[in-house]
Structures are given as structure tokens and as C-alpha cells.
Amino acid sequence: MNDESGKELVSIGEVTIPFYEDALIVQLGEDGEIYVALRPIVEALGLDWSGQLQRIKRDPVLSEEIKTISVVIKPTQMLRERGEGAKYYVCLPKQYLSGFLFGINANRVREELRESVIRWQREAHLFLDAAFTGSAESAMEAMRQKYLRQGYDEAWIKQRQITIETRNQLTDEWKSRGVRGGQYGILTAVIHRGAFNMNPSDHLRFKGVEKGEVRDHMTGLELAFINVAEQATIANVQSDDAQGYEENYDAAEKGGRSAGAARRAFEEEHGRQVISDQSYLEQRQKLPSGNREGEDNLA
Fold it and tell me: May I ask the CATH architecture of the domain 7-104?
């Protein structure tokens, strides 16, 4: 057993996800929590693992949350690697990873990653301010920083922020009018289906993306039409004084249909399809860096 830190748990599943140029190991613990292995992150940043582990143990919050996750190795892998039947990872629950990263001295990380870490920490400052003060300006700037870090351009981010503001206004209307729980998702799908003739999950698969928020993969033009759909729904809700799920369902259907009609008129007038089978970000990342700034964001 590895006794470096915390209570030991058994992993019941493991996946890896990208982290800068390396991989992030994520474990599903037997307690149902998702845990992130810390050592691969520390080493990817070019930091000393033992020093970072001691920092965690000194932290009054992180020291209470750190766990050792054991992963059972299959017999064939065990023979190949001459293992002892299990691997051990020092982990934090995923919701505490930001706190760990926030405490890293960016001046000590690998030079090629320093700017990215500083950008992430600046973003974290803004999210903290938004959480404690309710500042909409900080929340939007934090969102902007997050999308910039992921590789989006300024024009797309402005369009995405517009859709977020509209969405927040719509959900506030629904909340005040008696919409509850899973009804939000149903109404959202109704609007999306009316605008694009497919559900959000179908739209995501159409783009060849397995998971995530479909709007983060939309082109600027697609974002414009989902915004029209939700603005039209807000107008319907307010003009009809829709109350409860059924009346808001009708308002959502009308809003989606209005945007769908506008989309089809646009396509006929301009001879081009609004709905793209490409993920905007993935297509952007394939472009040579010199061509990105002048890109037509509404393509």
C-alpha cells in the first residue's frame, strides 16, 4: 500500500483527459466521487512532486480532502510491468483541483506553460470575485478568459456571451413562472428542435462530438439563431404571461418555430446552410495560427 496521503479508496473506473500537452488521470472512486491524480499534473508543470505533496499536507482544506486511490492491475498488465497487483495515485476530488492549482507559484512551472497557468489563475480570481460579490462583470470576464484559454477568438466569445445573457434571462423567466427541475431541459430541447430541426444531443453528434455543451461547438451563425429562438421565446412568455410548464412549453414551441422559419429564409436567400457538421473550435484549431484572426466567424 502507498501511504503518502489520506484515506485509501479503490477506483472503479479510470479515464485520461488532455491536460496541456500531457494527460490527466481521472478516477471514479468507490464512494462515487471523481478524483484527479495530482502527480502527473505536477510533473507536467515541471514541479517537484515531494514539495507539492508537502504543500498539500500543510493546507488545512486540501489535507482533509486528499485520498490515495488504488487501481487494480489486470494479470497480463501485471506480468508486463512486473507490478504487485495495484497502482496507487494521490488524488483530490475534482472540485478541489482548482484550489490546488491556484496555490502553485507560476514562476516555477515550465517556461512554455507559465503563460497558460497565469491566465488560468487570473480567470480563477475573476470567478472568485463573481462568487463572493455577485459581480456580473467579473463573471463575464472570467468566462471570456476561459474561452480564450481554450482557443476561441474574441468575435466568437462576444457572440457566446450574448447567448449566455439571453439564456440567463430566459431561465429567470421560467423560474418565476413555475418551471421546475427537469422541465428546463425539456423546454430547451423544444426550442432547439424548432430552430434546427434536431435536439441538442443530435446536433452534438452531427458535429462529431461525443459530449459537452453543443453551444461551445457552434459557429457564430448557429449561435445567432439559437439566440433568436430564445429571445423569441422570452417575448412569447412575457406577452402571453405564460404560467406553469404547459403554457411555457407552448411559448417555447412558438419561439423555436420562429427561429426555424428565419433560418430557412436565410438559407434560401443566401444559398448556404446555417447548421454546420463541424465543431467550431476543432476547425479553428486546425487553422495555421496566422490565419485565425482574420477568419470569418459566422462561417
Answer: Roll (3.10)
